Amino acid sequence: MSQKKQSTEVNLKGTLVSVFIIGIIIIAMWFAVYGMYVAR
Amino acid sequence: MIAAQDRKLALWNIGVAYIAFLIGTLCGLLQVFIRNDALQLPSWLDYYQILTAHGVLLALIYTAFFIFAFFITGMSKSIGSFGPKVRLFSWIGFAVTTAGTVLATIMIVSGEASVLYTFYAPLKASGWYYVALALYVVGTWITSFALVGHYIVWKKKNKGQLSPLFAFMTITTIALWIIAGLGVVATVLFQYIPWAFGMVDTINVELSRSLFWYFGHPLVYFWLLPAYMAWYVVVPKLLGAKVFSDSLARLSFVLFILFSIPVGFHHQLTEPGISNFWKFLQVCLTFMVIIPSLMTAFSMFATFEIAGRKKGGKGLFGWFTKLPWKDVRFTSIFIAMAFFIPGGAGGIINASFQLNEVVHNTLWIVGHFHITVGTPVAMTFMGLTFWMIPYLTGRKFTKSMQKLGFIQVITWAIGMLLMSTSQHILGLLGAPRRTAYSGYNNHPSALEWFDGILTNHVTMAIGGSILFLSAMILIYIVVMSMFISPKAVREEDFVEFPMAESDKENTPKWLENWWIWIGIAFVLIIIAYAIPLSGMIHHAPPGSEGFRTW
Lengths: 40, 550
Description:
The structure holds 2 protein chains of 2 kinds.
Chain A: H1 2-8, H2 13-39
Chain B: H1 4-35, H2 47-79, H3 84-109, H4 127-157, H5 165-196, H6 205-238, H7 246-259, H8 276-288, H9 290-310, H10 318-321, H11 328-350, H12 356-359, H13 363-370, H14 373-393, H15 399-429, H16 444-449, H17 457-484, H18 514-538
Helix pairs in contact in B: 1-2, 1-3, 1-17, 2-3, 2-4, 2-14, 3-4, 4-5, 5-6, 5-7, 6-9, 6-14, 7-9, 7-18, 11-13, 11-14, 11-15, 13-15, 14-15, 14-17, 15-17
């Protein structure tokens, strides 16, 4: 049953990685400006 | 095709939108050259007039008229033709909004209202400018209520049913707009107009700014949500897919009603008249908006991946190459989405309380809104324009127009990339916003700002010029699709409104219970605003007289 369910599920691995990339961009930009704030 | 009278209404809205777009972008081009000291204006025109016109005509007028054209077209398609009353009030709303627009433009051009788009007191414009602003908001409210009326008629005929996704999203955006508008109407009617016409001598500056930003931040979402509507409803159809999740789409929209309004203080983080506690509370609420934004990002990627895999895309990112890149209706919106990634990340930085000190009064903010409203929103509207005008006029969206469409969105993207990157970096270095050209007495620090490859005057001017060229191509496409392109005769030449199917079988009914969402929104607004605003009124410092710095 669980195997059958798995085979019909949509593969969204690319989506998962894509949203992680967005998360990384957000964090990288945030820390870049945070670094400037701390340094000034 | 929708009813002829509804099409006429939508086309008039688009017409005014693109007249505003034409003048607004021309003002943008002039600014770039003035800031670089490459252009001397005639004595009757100054930088701040142009800056005000640029902000008002693009951010308020182009957006609002285009949004209502989109709503009118989509509502007529999704829940049926308008009745006579809905049509009448939509026309009245259009006329009142246009009257406000014309009056505001006259005031700006005649040098009576160089108060910038935020019209911060104690800068004082002619009283008629504030009357114009009130007319603009009330006009949009009249159209909004007309659309709500149309929705209520549908709901009565379809008791117990969830409305189509497009209609639901329209009503969500309108609810947000009406609640947000209360702030600006309050300050304009009870503070600015009595003050500008000399009925009172002074104005409570902090209160006026707070009421403006109570409106100003949800205004951002009034621009953004129609773009999201296109992303959720139009894009899947272009990919040959369904909406990824009807429940997710509806939930993200109602979360925007809740979390886009009680957050205006994050625009006022450097102001001394608001205590840190209230600023911090609103900063936290601002961060809640990240949730529906990331839900939208997830939903978009999932739609792309599902559609791309169906077309044979393999591996982790193979689906990406299978997307319909040759379709300008899709590619334009995809570029718009891509710009929103750094745009949204920048927004999180702006709202991060202390980090705001790094960027607040700098060109970073100008760069930020050019890669939020200026590209993700505007380019989505461009992507809609390509097919919406032919859909409404019954003309062809010809191959040459499609090619021009590609040139237009690519030039816009390049121009914006150059200009906004430059603005972001200059802002981080310390270059101020809201100012005309200044050499800062040749101070070495100020001169150094403009030494970089991306931050020199020439790069900015090239970026601005490319953007203007792109804007003119768009105006050409608009004129062609409205009046000149050949009429569609064969069935395959008719342009369709791409509206994806949305499976609402498993969508919970409570997602369309407006009492819940508008109720919670008001509770949050009261929590976030009641005490600080009452403090501003009861413990107000002496008010300020008006200033005309121009």
